[in-house]
Design brief:
291 residues, mainly alpha, 10 helices, 0% strand
């Protein structure tokens, strides 16, 4: 009994030390939260991204809806088709979310050294962190979009990059960079601004705003609003990255308007709101629970 007590006590002390260490190192906490949520959310929500990409592909019928897009994916590759592009998504999202959260917290901490928080500082932190993250991982974003469309078939990530470099040009790996920045940087700025604002509001006196469901709700609402506002750039980005030839930003905007009308800039909106808001909510809930 005595040895069992010692073992249990030792384990408990070790857990306390680990928790304290993580709490005292916010960058490590950011990486743990980002990597964990990146792995889970990418695997679970990948089908939404695949269907959204098919919907936004300018080569498909303009009347294509969610149901027919889903049928199309199933007819092409059955069940596994909904997880095509998973490899570049994992490579992009696991380190990407971790890097983004870490940079966001680092920049935000620097901007609020005098303990004066503001929505503007939250926005600057989110915007700056996303610009850096997008630029680092852009090649995997291009591969992800191409494989998800079903129009490109790369056996491995290395083969995909090699084929693009050999058959096209290195610049193709950064195709769609501008609309991606215009989509992701404002999304992160808006999300972090709204999230911080909501998180610091107590709706009820007895409500603890550190409770998981409260944090998750804040993240869900912030993600939905930010996704809606930045949706047009998601469609433009997809059009550029799936184009066989170089497609300038203005030309992509004109083509979408000509083929679909204004509604074309919001194709796949419901799927993106569902995926991005849930991913963001899960990420920040995990982060807050590690605090």
């Amino acid at each position: 009994m005595e040895s069992s007590y010692d073992i249990n006590g030792s384990n408990k002390n070790n857990n306390i030390r680990v928790n304290t260490f993580v709490h005292d190192h916010p960058i490590l906490k950011s990486f743990i939260a980002g990597s964990t949520s990146g792995l889970f959310s990418t695997v679970v929500f990948q089908p939404f991204d695949v269907i959204k990409t098919v919907l936004q592909d300018p080569r498909n019928d303009k009347k294509l809806g969610i149901i027919n897009a889903t049928k199309s994916v199933w007819q092409q590759q059955s069940f596994y088709g909904f997880w095509r592009g998973l490899s570049p998504s994992l490579v992009r999202n696991i380190p990407g979310i971790a890097i983004h959260i870490s940079l966001t917290q680092l920049i935000y901490s620097y901007l609020t050294q005098n303990n004066q928080t503001s929505m503007v500082k939250s926005g600057i932190a989110g915007f700056s962190a996303r610009c850096i993250t997008v630029s680092i991982l852009m090649p995997f974003t291009v591969l992800k979009t191409r494989v998800e469309s079903g129009q490109y078939h790369y056996t491995t990530l290395a083969r995909g990059i090699s084929d693009i470099l050999r058959l096209e040009c290195w610049k193709v790996l950064y195709r769609g960079w501008t609309p991606t920045i215009l989509r992701d940087a404002p999304f992160s700025a808006l999300y972090f601004m709204i999230f911080i604002k909501l998180k610091n509001i107590k709706l009820l006196e007895e409500l603890d705003n550190k409770q998981p469901f409260y944090i998750f709700g804040c993240g869900l609402l912030a993600g939905g609003l930010a996704s809606f506002i930045t949706q047009p750039f998601d469609v433009i980005k997809t059009s550029q990255q799936l184009s066989k030839e170089k497609l300038p930003l203005i030309d992509a905007i004109i083509i979408i308007k000509r083929k679909y009308g204004i509604a074309g800039y919001f194709k796949g909106l419901s799927l993106r709101i569902l995926r991005r808001s849930l991913m963001a909510a899960i990420t920040w809930t995990i982060y807050e629970q590690l605090s």
